[in-house]
Amino acid sequence: NKKFIEGFYKAKGYFPSWLRGKSYQATMFWAEAVKKAGKDDVDAVRKAWEGLTYEGPAGKWYMRPCDHQAQVPIWIAEIVKDNPFYKHAYVGPATMIPAKDIEVPCNETGCPGLAK
Question: Would you tell me which CATH number, out of the four given (3.30.70.2190, 3.40.50.2300, 1.20.120.350, 3.10.450.50), belongs to the domain 2-108?
Answer without folding.
Answer: 3.40.50.2300
